[in-house]
């Protein structure tokens, strides 16, 4: 029994079962050289990578293609979050799963302008000038909103609120696909 548990732990570590706690994203159009503490990454335009960082303070250096010097800042990881390497626009979309009659009372849906168009829902725009944003969503960039409630415990309330982090362009695509589907 112990051997099989140790084998499973070893396989998970090797294959990446520990998926990481930081969504490191270059949503920009230029490559970026990134150093976190002493580990360097080259992030191609549009590249996303999930990494693991320990709780605590970390030093971030970002060198852009034509820059002579790297930008430096430090950030503190509590649980995990988003590293916005290109100062891009991100939003959190909050949605309700369960009784649709509860949407009005449980969500703060409003009209919001995104890239010159109006969208209705509960959205939170994140500050694009902040490099690190601590996680306040259920699903990160590499995850989808679930399609249904299969296997979820809803309790007495008969609904669950879930939040997903999106790049601005991907939120627009997901929203338009949902509208078209309905």
Structure description:
The chain has 182 residues and is of the alpha+beta class. Helices cover 18% and strands 40% of the residues. It contains 3 helices and 12 strands, in the order αββββββββαββββα. The chain has helices at residues 2-15, 103-106, 168-181; strands spanning 22-25, 32-36, 39-43, 48-51, 56-64, 71-77, 81-84, 90-98, 110-114, 117-125, 132-134, 159-167. Strands 4-1-7-11 form a 4-stranded mixed sheet, with no helix packed on it. A 4-stranded antiparallel sheet has the order 3-2-5-6, with no helix packed on it. The protein has a 4-stranded antiparallel sheet with strand order 9-10-8-12. The radius of gyration is 19 Å and the shape is globular. It starts with a helix and ends with a helix. Residues 1-16 have low confidence and may be disordered.
Main traits of this protein?
182 residues; alpha+beta; four-stranded mixed sheet; 3 helices; globular; disordered N terminus
Q: Work out the number of β strands.
A: 12
Give helix and strand order, one letter per element, not per position.
HEEEEEEEEHEEEEH
Number of helices: 3
Quick one: biggest sheet?
Answer: 4 strands, mixed
Beta-strand proportion: 35-45%
What is Rg?
19 Å
**Poorly predicted spans:** 1-16
DSSP helix fraction? 10-25%
Protein topology:
Layout: H1 2-15, E1 22-25, E2 32-36, E3 39-43, E4 48-51, E5 56-64, E6 71-77, E7 81-84, E8 90-98, H2 103-106, E9 110-114, E10 117-125, E11 132-134, E12 159-167, H3 168-181
Parallel strand pairs: 1-7
Antiparallel strand pairs: 1-4, 2-3, 2-5, 5-6, 7-11, 8-10, 8-12, 9-10
């Amino acid at each position: 029994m112990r051997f099989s548990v140790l084998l499973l732990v070893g396989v998970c570590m090797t294959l990446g079962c520990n998926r990481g706690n930081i969504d490191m994203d270059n949503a920009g159009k230029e490559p970026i050289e990134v150093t976190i503490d002493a580990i360097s990454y080259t992030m191609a335009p549009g590249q996303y990578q999930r990494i693991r960082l320990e709780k605590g303070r970390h030093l971030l250096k970002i060198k852009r293609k034509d820059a002579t010097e790297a930008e430096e800042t430090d950030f503190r990881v509590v649980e995990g979050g988003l590293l916005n390497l290109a100062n891009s626009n991100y939003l959190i979309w909050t949605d309700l799963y369960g009784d649709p009659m509860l949407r009005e009372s449980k969500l703060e849906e409003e009209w919001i302008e995104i890239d010159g168009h109006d969208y209705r829902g509960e959205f939170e725009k994140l500050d694009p000038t902040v490099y690190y944003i601590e996680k306040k969503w259920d699903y990160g960039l590499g995850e989808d909103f679930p399609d249904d409630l299969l296997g979820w415990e809803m309790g007495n309330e008969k609904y669950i609120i879930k939040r997903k982090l999106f790049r601005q362009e991907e939120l627009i695509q997901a929203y338009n696909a949902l509208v078209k589907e309905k």
